[in-house]
Request: fold
Amino acid sequence: MFTGIVEELGEVTSVENLDDASRFRLRGPVVTEGARHGDSIAVNGVCLTVVDHEGDEFTADVMAETLNRSSLGALAVGSRVNLERPMAVGDRLGGHIVQGHVDGTGEVIERKPSDNWEIVKISLPEDLRRYVVEKGSITVDGISLTVVDAGPDYFTISLIPTTLALTTLGLKQPGDPVNLEVDVIAKYVERLLGSQEAGR
Reply:
């Protein structure tokens, strides 16, 4: 379980493409401190398992399902990534409940900078639109954000200078893919209401 509060901007140092998977080596001094085999680390919002770690780098295997559902398949050596360790019991929930289970990908459509923040417009897959509401929570590349405007096939987010400086969203340009995870509470509510309707 994560909160969507990115701890550091890491870097991909190695990519090994296998038959039905990929093995990534990533640098992140903060998230590797005290890391052990089997620990979880969110990479651009995707919960990955630490296979090995040495110094300030760790290795993670990514299966085909994850590569197909997320934007991790587009990563290359030198790519910057958002990194977050799972929350510990008793920690403050600074963002919202994030599982690290990406629901799909969107694409940056446009950026509108201003003096103190920037509005970013992102495309929204049809099967996720019903979960995204104005002022609701959404996870973009592992970052807990508030939806400013929920359009028919897009949504917008407002980014403060800290988010722009310390996460991948400061680097993304129109056309770039981003990982999306909708609020899990919305999915559970939908399922429960659907079960009630079926029972009637």
